Every structure is written in structure tokens, then in C-alpha cells.
Amino acid sequence: MDIRETLKDKSRIIIKIGSSSLTHPQTGALDLTKLEILIREICNIKNMGKDVILVSSGAIAVGSRSAGFQRKPKKLEEKQACAAIGQAQLMMIYQKLFAEYGHMAAQVLMTKNTITNDESRRNAYNTFQELLKLDAIPIVNENDTVSTYEIQFGDNDTLSALVSSLVGADLLILLSDIDGLFTDDPHRNPDAEFIHVVESLNEDLMKMGKGTTSSVGTGGMSTKLSAARIATSSGADMIIANGKDFHIIHKLLLGENLGTLFLGKKDHTFSLEEYLHSINK
């Protein structure tokens, strides 16, 4: 059996969307056409009887646009204020669009403490389980508004991998402004080769992480490879793919050879609790 064919059978899927995939590059405003396609794709997955959790960036980008910033704010207090404005706007649009297709969206805002504190992590797990039982679609983001170090630490690649591990997902899809993993930076090296499948992550692969070319998002390739290590060690497959066209979601789930597929291999020595405590030091 083609290894991509197994993606058809995934039942609990995490989809992470980067800021650059949600906004118009010229203005920074939300791309509502793309957003509607995203919602339709997710609703169709739900209609197939699968669980879906969306990890969505974009609060600061949307809020800074509404607040009149010409470029991404740099001061912490500006970022937090923009996150407060943008998160409310994002959720309002998400809930409206999901409702139009007969589905219910739920907001889950997480801080570092949510996942490093044992009791908070258990509560988060129980909340996710209950939301999925209620057939809701959890929409997750970092709580940038109130968490001083969250924006400095934060990238939703890592957050989506941690959520994947927490809820026992079997597939994590990272959609960004890149096609997947190359042997070198394709913008600088025309001979860089595309990597379709990664069977196991080694140190050479981890060193391939490059800085992001996007002026909107925060996560580069290095954060995506770190996310792959968390997700695959927890037993989930992970895909890095281009979010230019959100129709790619159903194509990936049909087993089409798009993006870079990292094969999940449960590492019984990997402990989410130990990993979380290590990043909190």
C-alpha cells in the first residue's frame, strides 16, 4: 500500500494555519475567500465523521490592521492590544462561517502554563475531549493578550504539535507559505531538492531548518521540524504543505503526493510531560 493512502484513514486531525495563509499580502487584511474555502474543507472532514481541531494564527495580524498599524507592531504592549482586537474579530468570523455550514466552533486560548502545569494540562485535555464529544470544532490559539512571555516563546507550529500530542491526534497538517522541506533553501539554491517523505528525523534533517521568508508569521522551518519531532514521537504523522490554496486539505487526505510527509513512529521513551517541563526551564 502507498504510504500516502493511509492518510485516508486518519480520524483525529489537527490543522495549523499560519498568518500569511489567512491574509492578503498587499494589505494584511483577512482573505475572506480563502477563509471560506478553509471552513468548507474542515466542515467536509467533520461530515466524514472525523475529529478536527484548527490551530489558527492571525490575531495580531488582523488586530494590527484594524488598529491602523501600517506594519506588524514590535512593542509587546502593542502586540497584546492587537491580539485582543484581532482574536475577537477572528472568532466572530469563524463562528459565523462554521454556522453557515451547520457546525459549531469553540475558542480555546492556551498559555505556556496551560500545558506545563499538570493540573491545567489535564483540564485542557478534558475540555478538548468534551468539545469533540459535542461535535464542536475547537479553534486554538496562544493567549497572546495576557501572557508576557507567550509571544516571545510562541509559535503555533509548536503549539499545534503539543495539542496533537495532548489529544492523541493521528495527523497534524501544518499549512504555511512553503511547499515543504527541501535539502537547502530553494530561494537561494536552485539545486535544492524537495523531500517528499521523512521516515525518521535525524540531526542532519533538524539542521536544515531555515528562517521564515514571511514578514507576517513567526515560525520558520526550524519550528516546523521541532513540531515534527513532537508530533511523530507522539505517534502522529505530520505534513508540511503550502496553504496558498486550502483545497489542498482534502487532496492531502485523499493521499495525493503533496507537501512533505513525516511518518509518525511512537517513541515510548518520549514523554510530553518531561518535554513540557524542559521548555519551561
UniProtKB/TrEMBL annotation:
ATP binds at K16, S176, D177, T218, G219, G220, M221, S222, T223, K224. It is found in: Cytoplasm. The keyword Repeat does not apply. Its main location: cytoplasm. Keywords: Amino-acid biosynthesis, ATP-binding, Cytoplasm, Kinase, Nucleotide-binding, Proline biosynthesis, Transferase. Its EC number is 2.7.2.11. NCBIfam families: proB. Belongs to the glutamate 5-kinase family. This is Glutamate 5-kinase. It comes from Muricoprocola aceti. The lineage of its organism: Bacteria, Bacillati, Bacillota, Clostridia, Lachnospirales. The gene is proB.
